[in-house]
Specification:
alpha/beta; Rossmann fold; 5-stranded parallel beta sheet; two-stranded antiparallel ribbon; globular; Cytidylate kinase; transferase
Length: 269
């Protein structure tokens, strides 16, 4: 099991850059990437099994009914996943250290022993970055309500924030995080071998695939196979920052450790 001192939390709303930069930092430093967003559907199942009334009510709605919910109604049917996220991260192996990120990460849930950073950006920038995502895009009414709540909590707690509005690349944001978390990154256990790094990257890519496949199945979307997503190159080179776009239906099902690696052109496992 991991210890909280070995966890770097990165929070922020959709489009602030947290997932892309967390994946990049994990590759650079040989760390494990955990995204609470990729656990959305598993957490919903856990909430339903526990008898959570909001989760059960949302599950009974058709996809069309969900899309027509007002912002107030949608927020009322949201579930608090903080405890489940903490359970997930605590259960991860002790090494390497973990970069845990997601829209659910707020100051009140982060253990005091951990390092934590929140990424913020102008709503129009976030909306542009997430256009075409399908769900979870920034700039909508629910997102804006949640952003106001998050910013108020960040101001109240004096949490560490980085504004990514002017960042055109994930590398820029990664460099800023490395500057403010230099001591943490230098002192945490990491994967050393190429093989260990490749296994961590596959674990992260598989989580992305599972997130979208589960979401498509839950929504009744039968045309989601053409969904393009960027996956991390699985060459395992610490200096590799390449992303590889693949259609969801081009990824083997199941996407196990024995499946062929996802590699950028010219890269080798």
């Amino acid at each position: 099991m991991t210890t909280w001192v070995n966890v770097l939390w990165i929070g922020g709303r959709s489009g602030a850059g947290k997932s892309t930069v967390a994946r990049l930092l994990a590759r650079r430093h040989g760390l494990r990437w955990y995204s609470c967003d990729t656990r959305t559907w598993a957490h919903r199942d856990r909430a339903i099994a526990a008898g959570d009334e909001a989760a059960i009510a949302w599950e009974r709605l058709t996809p069309e009914e969900r899309s027509q919910l007002s912002a107030t109604a949608a927020i009322a049917l949201a579930i608090d996943r903080s405890a489940m996220v903490l359970d997930d991260v605590a259960a991860l192996p002790a090494e390497p250290a973990v970069i845990a990120e997601g829209t659910n990460v707020v100051p009140s849930m982060v253990p005091p022993q951990s390092k934590a950073i929140w990424l913020i950006a102008q709503p129009t920038v976030r909306a542009d970055r997430t256009s075409g995502r399908g769900w979870g895009a920034g700039g909508g009414e629910v997102d804006m309500i949640k952003e106001r709540e998050l910013r108020a909590e960040l101001d109240r707690t004096g949490a560490l924030t980085i504004d990514t509005t002017g960042h055109s690349t994930a590398e820029q944001t990664a460099d800023r995080i490395e500057a403010v978390a230099e001591a943490w990154l230098a002192s945490r256990p990491r994967a050393g071998s190429g093989g260990a790094r490749r296994r961590l990257i596959r674990e992260g890519n598989a989580a992305i695939v599972e997130q979208y496949r589960a979401g498509m199945a839950r929504s009744g979307n039968t045309e989601g196979g053409g969904l393009l997503r960027a996956y991390d190159c699985e060459c395992g080179d610490a200096g590799c920052s390449a992303l590889v776009e693949r259609r969801l239906d081009s990824i083997p099902d199941p996407f196990t450790s024995s499946a062929a690696p996802i590699l950028a052109p010219g890269h080798h496992d």
